[in-house]
User: Which sequence fits this backbone?
């Protein structure tokens, strides 16, 4: 009999100020699962990766350029948006080299069976998101807003 699934369900916990990014990741998870089924007859395995926090220059180079017109409804949240953008480069994140090593290790790990889908989370806060996957959605969204949403200036 085949071993149990590596991970029961990908964490679907978007954070405030990252809607397009979260939507694109959700689409990739769905595409990966579909490809795993469709490629099964060809013996091709699919590895879907949720990288978590990986230190790179992407956030540092992009965050200062986040545009906020003065009349934007969200102008008061600019600090929270910048903080969200910079989170991936935070203290608990891993280096690009560590990330690459973990992905190679997962891809080469024994235990693949034909056409099987594997989902991996490589860096902090992976454990936090694994717990969130089991909680009621409305509670998760409330937590995410409290942790990441921030307060508008002047409130």
Assistant:
């Amino acid at each position: 009999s085949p071993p149990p699934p590596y991970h029961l369900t990908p964490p679907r916990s978007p954070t405030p100020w990252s809607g397009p990014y979260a939507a694109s990741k959700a689409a990739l998870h769905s595409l990966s699962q579909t490809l795993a089924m469709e490629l099964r007859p060809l013996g091709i395995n699919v590895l879907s990766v949720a990288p978590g926090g990986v230190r790179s220059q992407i956030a540092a180079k992009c965050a200062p350029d986040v545009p906020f017109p003065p009349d934007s409804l969200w102008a008061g949240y600019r600090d929270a948006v910048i903080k969200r953008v910079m989170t991936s480069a935070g203290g608990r994140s891993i280096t690009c080299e560590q990330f690459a090593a973990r992905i190679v290790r997962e891809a080469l790990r024994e235990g693949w069976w034909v056409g099987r889908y594997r989902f991996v989370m490589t860096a902090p806060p992976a454990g936090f998101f694994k717990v969130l996957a089991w909680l009621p959605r409305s509670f998760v969204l409330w937590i995410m807003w409290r942790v990441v949403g921030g307060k508008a200036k002047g409130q």
Observations:
- The two ends are 58 Å apart (CA to CA).
- The first strand starts at residue 46 and ends at 50.
- Strands lie at 46-50, 117-121.
